[in-house]
Design goal:
Length: about 150
């Protein structure tokens, strides 16, 4: 949008300063009209810039942190496994994690006995344990009690 305003403005100012200026000097109304339109485009382009800066500023002030906590990541992984996603790459896609952090989380969850790895040939799949189900149920009940706004 800004580029359109700037393009119109530069075209009109260039047009008015060029060889057609003498022609428009005789037609004062048309010259004045084009001058007003070009000034309107200048004002509109600057207003558009200020509006964009204002919107970006407001967004950055009121933006909620997009980083998930460690517990939220653990719960996302547990929920994905409970819903039937057992392969690590599918867990990675479902929980929106990259490979290295996912493997760290899975290793930590195995150490805490929240999930259990199962070897199926050359592939490893993960199953949720009883302790993992208890943790998931506990935090699900806690989230129902707390109303987050």
């Amino acid at each position: 949008m800004f580029m359109i305003y700037c393009g119109i403005r530069y075209f009109l100012f260039g047009f008015l300063k060029g060889r057609f200026r003498q022609y428009f000097a005789k037609k004062r109304f048309l010259y004045a009209f084009l001058l007003v339109v070009s000034l309107f485009c200048v004002v509109l382009s600057y207003a558009h810039c200020l509006l964009c800066i204002l919107v970006i500023g407001i967004y950055s002030v009121f933006r909620v942190s997009s980083k998930r906590s460690r517990i939220e990541i653990y719960l996302d992984v547990l929920q994905a496994i409970r819903k039937g996603v057992h392969k690590p790459t599918r867990i990675m896609y479902r929980t929106n994690l990259s490979w290295k952090p996912l493997m760290q989380v899975l290793d930590a969850m195995i150490e805490q006995q929240l999930i259990a790895p199962e070897n199926e040939g050359t592939h490893v799949t993960y199953k949720i344990t009883e302790k993992g189900m208890n943790v998931l149920n506990y935090f699900s009940e806690a989230m129902e009690l707390i109303e987050i706004k």
